[in-house]
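Troubleshooting: if your tokenizer reports a length mismatch, compare against these two reference records.
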Amino acid sequence: MLALLKLLQDGQFHSGEALGVALGISRAAVWKQLQALQGELGIVIHKVRGRGYRLEAPLHLLDAQRLNAPAVTPRWLAHVHSRVDSTNAEALRLIPAAQQIPFYVVAERQTNGRGRRGRDWVSPFGENLYYSLVLRIDGGMRQLEGLSLVVGLALLQVIRDVGVVSAGLKWPNDVLVGKQKLAGILLELSGDPADVCHVVIGIGLNVNMRAHGQQTIGQPWTSLQGELGRVLDRNELILALNQQLERYLAIQLNESFAALQQEWQDNHLWQGSAVALTAGSEPVQGVVLGVDRSGAIRLDVNGLEQSFSGGELSLRLRDDS
């Protein structure tokens, strides 16, 4: 089925006969596979008598050979899948037998994609970036201070480089355009947090997602294609993301998050905004002052500065119902 999809990914018309010849199967078998593509993957295929079949929109399928090409830098091994439960889960499974770290996992779709606080991450086939990078951390969790914010800066640079200059950050791990979510980050740990451990950096980026997914997403969202009006090659985005992650992670490792504190604050969309921070049963209301040297959010709460950090915290604009 994927072989057929590769023939159709250019978005041009292909006759059933030509597709059958290319695949070494009958036209009837081609038709069955086309039905499977629509039914199992949700891909829309147009049929026009006398012209053949074409996808509703072109696809840029993930290319393992291209991502693992010898000239690619950094030399992080790419594990490319057509389907996984989640790229973070697959990355965690691969750690015990991994011969090379860092490595990363990408997939065409996720059947159980996860966001923060146990939320589902909608993951249609072939449209978005589902990415998980594995790093080895020696010396305990202190080196992870501000890590999700550092990853956000790297991701934001990639997004702005392709032309979405209005994108910005939301503490602690989202990229927004206005009030619409464009990307999210999920960190997971494996091993001893006080000594040697591995961290999985999960990134979900809406690349070419179209409106058909809107009914299943519980918040306003946008995509790179929606902002730019063109289809983007996810392979190019992955290679650019790897380069930016290598650059920003090196700064954090050598100088700590404090070296990036001001840059992050300069790109925080809610700087100076009235917010409600969910931290337990009662939300804390205040005004965003920025982040501290460890990446914790700083709020003015009734005239007093307070800092908050933790994986279960959720920040909302005060007027956001």
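Reference record two:
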Amino acid sequence: MRRKITSSLLGLGIAGVTLFATSGSAQSHGYVDSPISRSQLCGLGTVQDCGQIEWESWSVEGPQGFPGRGPADGTLCSGGNGRFSELDDPRGGAWPATPVSSGENHTFTWRMVARHATTDFRYYITKDGYDPSKPLTRSDLEPQPFLTVPFGGRQPDYTVTHTGTLPQKSGKHLILGVWTVADTDNAFYACSDVQY
């Protein structure tokens, strides 16, 4: 009887570990911590009523190929993932913003939960005249990233930092970070509100 119980418990334990590992790897990736992203603000509870992203701040994954392809306009902050549509809601322009200055060297930090082979990291910023009370579209962004970090298919560490010079701007802007994965058809998207 003891053997049967022990075998049953062992089997349940293995099944549980397998299920946890499978579901964890499917939903675990990375987020931008500096300047703090909308998904991380929700994950920390700094911003309320965020829906599912509150428990999955690392999962903003969508189709790659931005800006030519990828998520549709108005869904860029959620990576086109309807489960995280709260990230696309501009909240009347009231998302908390990280203070920054024109021309400063800023260190961008990604926290990885699962490390994927990586093509590159790219950072876009909104154009002058951007309206933070409307959902983000491609036409709101400068056409070229102000910082591109090629990765050549390498796997990043669990903390990745890039330093780049912030463009000359004033007022409230939004930085869209795009982490392009090399071994899938997806990328990760992170919107960080900043105040010059």
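Descriptive notes for reference record two:
- Strands lie at 30-34, 61-63, 98-99, 105-112, 118-125, 147-150, 159-165, 172-181, 186-195.
- The mean pLDDT is 87.
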